[in-house]
Amino acid sequence: MAKPTTVAADSPALDSTTPTQAPPLAKAGGIAGWLDERLTIGALSKHPNALRKIFPDHWSFLIGEIALYSFVILLLTGVFLTIWFKPSMAEIEYEGSYQLLRGVPMSEAFASTLSLSFDVRGGLLVRQIHHWAAMLFVGAATAHMLRVFFTGAFRKPRELNWLIGVGLLSISLIEGFAGYSLPDDLLSGTGLRFVDGLVRSVPLIGTWAEFFMFGGEFPGTLIIPRLYMVHILLVPGLLLALIGGHLTIMWYQKHTQFPGPGRTESNVVGYPFFPVYMAKAGGFFFIVFGVTVLMGTFMSINPVWMYGPYNPAEVTAGSQPDWYMGWVEGAIRIMPNWEWHLGGTTWSWNIFLPGAGLMGLLFTGLALWPFIEAWITGDRAEHHLLDRPRNAPTRTALGVAGMTVYGMFWLAGGNDILATMFHLSLNDVTYVMRAAVFVAPVLAFLITRRICASLQRADRNRVLHGSETGVIVRTVDGRYYEDHVPISDDEAFTLTQHAEYPELEATPAHDASGVAMKPLVSKSRARVRRWYVAPYVGKPTATEIESAHDHGDHADDPALESGDRKALTH
Amino acid sequence: MSTSDSRQVERIHPVPDPGIEEHLPRWTDVDEGAATRVTRQITFMFGLVPLLSIAFVVFYFAIDRNATVDFAGLHAPAQHTLMGLAAGLAILLVGVGAVQWARLIMSDHELVGERHTMASSDEARRVAVQQFADGVADANIARRRLLGTSFAGALGILVVPALVTLADLGPWPGPGMRKATIEKTVWAEGVHLVTDVTFNRIKAAEMEIGQLINAQPEVFKDMAHEDPAQFQREKAKASIIVVRMDPNRIKIPASRATWHVGGILCYSKICTHVGCPISLWEQQTHHLLCPCHQSTFDLANSGVVVFGPAARSLPQLPIKVDGQGFLVAQQDFNVPVGPSYFERDSRNDYQEGQD
To answer: Is B30 near chain A, with CB under 8 Å?
Structure first.
């Protein structure tokens, strides 16, 4: 964060964004003048949100940009691929330039993928850029969601944008899956076979869904053309519309900012869109693009010619989906084999629960979280200042627990790889993962809450007693202590500006005359809020800070440190 | 809710807001020489882009398609590598140059903008509500409710014809359709078992104990050319594994005593979990492991599940030998093969311990 110009602390954050001497468009002539005469674009200059809109700066805000830019790269490279790719399952005999597969019967989809890779100049490069950008897109979107979650950026007024984000993430999984199924190679066909089993497992309507999706029995000849439509038209259209909405709302509501000196709930501190942000963001697009091109150049991805065409009677050991489906794969692998056979029907909980159930649970949970949290805290205020994750310890711990359970399922998706790599029993790995998906998130939750509380305590000590200097001082009476220097006002403010949730007592369920009424704060909500706020250490009050600083001469004497460190004094 | 906000969340500042930090000039702000150097560096980056673009075009046309590069562990087509390198660097330089320009040359004075609460003012709300009420009044809907109800109904019912057009997405899997498709394979009395890919008949006498053959029905030989789509569909159901074990060391239930030929047993190759072809054979334990989700079946015990997410035994195909000693099927599988589906009657699958 660069050092901004001085603004007196008490001065109102007046709009300093309108250029004092806007070049008059009418006089400018040329294209701008031509457009102004037709679209009144000059009037935009009256609006502070036009060219000079202010965007706060932080590295973590770039993660969402990576997702956006990967999407643009996917559109650009995808158009190129459609020029040569043939979404057809008609069988032909390969006669292209890849010697090892000559004469092998395969679908036109697979043959055209080989042709793209070996006969079209630059085809392999674009294919690999497209696949890497897809990996990056889902990865960046996931990381962006975590950033938004841990900093509380989903709170009012941004719940709608959070919901759009959850929608984007869920349909990008479909988009990715449809995409890597298209080449009709042995690996992607195996993935489709799995989806066929998953669709079949849906109670009541599974068989119908399967027949409608595949146009009859698996594999049929329709699934590739249908997935092609889904992959290049339906889902990208939805993604484009949702991304448009996501960005428009972000623009309209203005970006959140991290707390710091001069940053308040009613201002936004940063750089103007034009030229600084345009150059930085535009430049960053080219950096992301350049990096994906280099990845596509040097890092081989999805070499389908090594897998061969799809054959329902063959499979490769160590088959893995793309990374973002790994957690579903893991859940399917470690699920116990529960199946009901009721009368003439079969209920495949062993597939439906870890497949459809788990995905539903994750995305429903994510979508509901902003509303659950608002209910727990009772906080209905607008938030434009981000939380430091330590100051929302229960949320942070829940987030880490969620990441842990995701990670455990993801690891379980490679249980065979883990077993062979580390010379373990495949069965033992599976049994351990079955326990780990339940135990690990609980541990992660407890540990994270502890870490958050410790970090809060460290902040508190820093505000009260300053920064450690590393200099050990010996007093005349032979005691030792470390010298501390006071921290800057800027830092002290940043460490103490956050909102707090005071203890909330349940209100009586009876009025003064003993008549039952609906309590304002129910007992259960008071309890859940207490649990939610519990690991909060509390920031020092102004009096505490003052008294710590008043004893400045020997403020570093450990005897003055707050309660929890008293034990150290003698 | 605004009354309870102050009680439920509070923001007290023990340290007063010191205001936005002082602007510190960058090196390029105070030293003209430094600014000139940075400008030259950025211009140099932009200047490389046309050179790299020309190089890309040259690589596109001039490099032989079969040429490869072998360099420090990289073995790749030369055209692909050099084109990618040139394009990647060119694009990267545009980005790095632009970001450097923004970071070091453009003004880095942070600006402050205002935020307003998202909710509109009470006045604006009142006007909006009034406008809406005026519109409703103009539409005369309050007095003629039937109009609104029939309009909503008319719009809603339009979904039905739209959805019905999707009814032909695929054939309807009613009982008859299921019997003709997912509940049936091409196996039948007298169909020869042939080896995978090469389609050679399998002589019972030539199979060794412990040997496993990936096999298919002989009808595939012609189907592969005549109807490739049908071939793929049938292969996803009829693929089998043939395995020979010592009949005295395995469990063969009485009901299946005639299903094998001297310890040669035949099972569906399609996993009862999600339908992967199961192919990892553990010769000593007689277990067959599915590489997709690690379901493990005991071929020495009528294909029961011993591990993993699969819930049903592997269907066994009854076999015999023909006049020349080649393996042939006695009939189709007695249960549907492959993954479960809702209408599947799973009461006839082999259960551990059955006779």
So the answer is: no
